[in-house]
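#struct-help
A.M.: can someone run this one for me? Single chain, 191 residues.
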Amino acid sequence: MLPYYQDASFTPNWLTPNAKELEDFHKIPNFSLVNQLGKKVTDETFKDKIYVTDFFFTSCSGICPKMTTNMLVLQKEFENDEEVLLLSHSVTPERDSINVLKDYADAKGVMNDKWHLVTGKRDDIYNLGRNYYFVEEDLGETKANDDFLHTENFVLVDKNKHIRGIYNGLNKTSIKQLIADIYTLKSEKYF
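D.P.: on it. Structure tokens below:
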């Protein structure tokens, strides 16, 4: 069984998948973004899906290429599994247009029906990253909207929009643990 998380401290909450406490527990909110094919991607896209999300930008020469490589490992592992999707948010949506994302996806071997590279309003993306996925670990340090969002974290979200894990997207051991945790989630029963 995997824990549930509800804030940036990532303190594990050990609840059963259908516990009453989960009714008011932190969930990823409704969102609407656009992917590399110009298609709208919303929280409904991930309904009854397990997904892994991260935040990147196509012109990044630092951590992003390694993160993309590790997302490709996940894509390969779950390429024939309709229950598992991947979601990468551009943190430079003003530069990462649909066409730029499409070129990046094509160059990296992204399967368009498995892995959504999304753009949208910068404020929406940063709000999701900081306030709902909690991808930045600078606890106690308040970030302004104009502060750049840059993190190596991958976040695992279950079929009910609950965060179930955070992983270092640069670390092979962490990625292996993420894969194992996805299989654990797949075996959970939701009623």
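A.M.: thanks! The mean pLDDT is 91.
D.P.: also worth noting: The helical segments are 64-77, 98-108, 122-132, 172-186.
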